[in-house]
Design goal:
By secondary structure, this protein is α/β, with parallel strands linked by helices. The protein is built from 12 helices and 14 strands.
Length: about 290
Amino acid sequence: MIKLIASDMDGTLLDSRMAISEDNASAIREAARQGIEFMVATGRAYAEAKPPLDDAGIECAMITLNGAQVFDKTGRSIFTSGIEKDTVYEILDLLDQTEIYYEISTNEGIISERQEKRIENFAAHIADTMPHLTYKVAIAMAAAHLSLLEITYVDSIREAIKKEDIQVLKIIGFSIEGPKVLGPVGLKIEKLPDIVITSSAQNNIEVNHKNAQKGIAVANIAKKHGIDAEEVMAIGDNFNDVSMLQWAGVSFAMGNAEVEVKDYAKYTTSTNLENGVGEAILQAIREDL
């Protein structure tokens, strides 16, 4: 029987309102009644990930920034894995050469140079994951969502991260042209030492230290609690979920997952708009997966 569930958020746990549906929340509560711990594993920063959980009344451990930071259910940081500053500057140089908009997540929050680009690219992400929405609605949702977050807008990211106590945890680059533009620069970045490249949507690439992966983070938490891989269930929809789908003994890909991602999962559930996470949890309990 499973003892730990790790679920992605965007395109997985969250619905079209960027919220956790009552059906999903109910299944998570049922898992808790069965003695199964639930946690999220997301590319979001802590400040972005926590509000939907709070709204649903869910208190849980959180793997954030693809595994660069891990928090216990009280919000205490228990693990951090950052990118070396010299490597950060090399990555930013490569992104600048291709004129790709980027922002960085640090131990002190998210830093961006261009607010309008952040809204535009987050809207593209929403439109990509929820194609039934018009782009105008996606822009409105993006602006509303981002207005609730603590984001620092600066003239120069390079200057901002020179502070000794700043750790760069994740760099994310966006392009509305998707893999056509992001693919070649991603290959160059991947050649740098101790770096891993993933993505959470067609219009982005996410850069982390090689130790900052969801699969590694889930494995470390499971080990700490004396839980074997066969007793862990992972749920996700995109490439930054692959490492945990591969590691967990029970793995579900969302119905809306990228086709290649489904190949890494043992099971497929419904889409994020159809309470797929709740469906997967209840199936796992019912069939004693």
